[in-house]
Each structure stands twice: as structure tokens, then as C-alpha cells.
Amino acid sequence: MDEETFTLIDMLMQETWESEYVGHGRDAKGLEDLRFSKVKVTKIQRIENLPLYEHYAQYQRQLLHEAADGKNTMRVISVFNTYFS
Length: 85
Prior knowledge:
Mean pLDDT: 77
Number of helices: 3
Shape: extended
Largest sheet: none
Order of helices and strands: HHH
Structural class: mainly alpha
Number of domains: 2
Distance between the termini: 30 Å
Low-confidence stretches: none
């Protein structure tokens, strides 16, 4: 990764970091006591899995079409709550 990209990603992390949210959510078990006030980006890796991404993109398009058509609204809401909560 080039230095400019690293710097931009680091800036994005610093500008959007909200320490009051550390220790909340299912993936934060054990973090609530650490009281992080900032983050330090030390390494960025790009992970590619094209078949997985294509499957995700197709499923996302399907859900968006269903939502736009007013079909299966509860399923769309349920899936988005599962993945984005």
C-alpha cells in the first residue's frame, strides 16, 4: 500500500473515531474496561475474496430490489438489523 493511501485511511480513522462507543456491541466483549481514547493505525491489509464479494453484492441487490418493490419488507429489515447492528 502506498503512503498516500495509508495516510488517508489513517486520517479517516482518526476523524471518525468515537471513544464513547468502545466496549459496546457483540464484538466488544472485554473492551469496556480498557477505556481507549484514540486509535493508532499500524498496518493496513487488503483482503480479496472475489467469489465471496460477488455473492454478497448479488444478495445485497436482491434485498434492495425487494425493498423497492415493497416485497418481504420484514426479511429485508431483519437481514439489515442482523448485519448492521
